[in-house]
Every structure is written in structure tokens, then in C-alpha cells.
Design a protein that fits this description.
alpha/beta, 4 helices
Length: 150
């Protein structure tokens, strides 16, 4: 099976692609599933067209620079999306810029892949993006994640 362009290998070898929805979709095979953080609605005062995936996807209510509005639901959906990737599906995770919220989810998936929660921030910055996870609240959410899935 072909992999997604720009995919990151999690500690257990599972591949996921993180990206920003504000950038064009990379060349190559399409995702088989996407987990999108934010809202599919047009932002007020934005002239940009609304981008919607043409593949199966789910949206989490997760405001920019914040944490999910429903922690338990978000954690469950992150686990389910990780399982899809672990089972070989081409999975994409994206927020608008691909750094804060997406980095937070990739860090949580690293935890699911066996990486220690207290080092997940360093891991995601070393393997996904150097500035991944943008706010103190997002950093705390990564540490809280294991308690949400227990």
C-alpha cells in the first residue's frame, strides 16, 4: 500500500500525515480517512474558499490555539483514528496551520504508540514540526491525554 506524502512515523512505525488545511493537499495518494480540528464552516471575515475533504473524515470541535471543547470525545476520536492508521489506512490529521492542534494530536498518537507522555512534546517537535504544540493549554492537554483514555 502506498503511503501519504509527508507522513510521520510514530514510535511504533504507524504512519500519519499532519498538515495545515491552509496549504494545498500534497501530491500522491489521498488519505483514506481524515481527522480535522476546528470547523468545516467558513471563518467570518475570510475570503478563502472553504476546503472540504473528498474522502471519509471527521471534524472535532477544537478552536484555534485552544484545546478541544469536549475532552473525552476528542480523546476517543484520536484513539479511533490512531487505530485506523495502525491498521494500515492512510490517515491525515489537520487544523488550519498544521502546528498547534495538529501537533497536539500527533503527540497524543505518539503516546498511543508507546512513547512516554512526559516526553511526547519533545518527540513531536523532533519528528513532526519543531514548533508543534503552540500553547501552554495544549501542552497540558498532552499530559492529560492518558487519563482521558484510561
Amino acid at each position: 500500500m502506498s503511503t501519504l506524502t509527508g507522513a510521520t512515523a510514530l514510535p511504533d512505525g504507524t504512519l500519519v500525515r499532519g498538515r495545515g488545511r491552509s496549504q494545498p493537499v500534497p501530491e500522491g495518494p489521498e488519505p483514506q480517512f481524515g481527522l480535522y480540528l476546528g470547523s468545516p464552516e467558513r471563518r467570518r471575515f475570510s475570503r478563502r474558499p472553504v476546503w472540504l475533504p473528498t474522502w471519509p473524515a471527521e471534524w472535532l470541535d477544537w478552536p484555534d490555539f485552544r484545546t478541544p471543547r469536549d475532552d473525552v470525545h476528542a480523546a476517543a476520536r484520536i484513539v479511533a483514528t490512531y487505530e485506523r492508521a495502525r491498521n494500515g489506512e492512510r490517515v491525515e490529521i489537520a487544523c488550519l496551520g498544521g502546528t498547534g492542534r495538529t501537533g497536539t494530536v500527533v503527540a497524543c498518537m505518539a503516546i498511543l504508540a508507546g512513547h512516554p507522555a512526559d516526553d511526547a512534546l519533545a518527540w513531536v517537535r523532533a519528528h513532526y514540526r519543531p514548533h508543534a504544540v503552540e500553547t501552554p493549554g495544549q501542552k497540558r492537554w498532552i499530559l492529560k491525554f492518558p487519563t482521558l483514555i484510561a
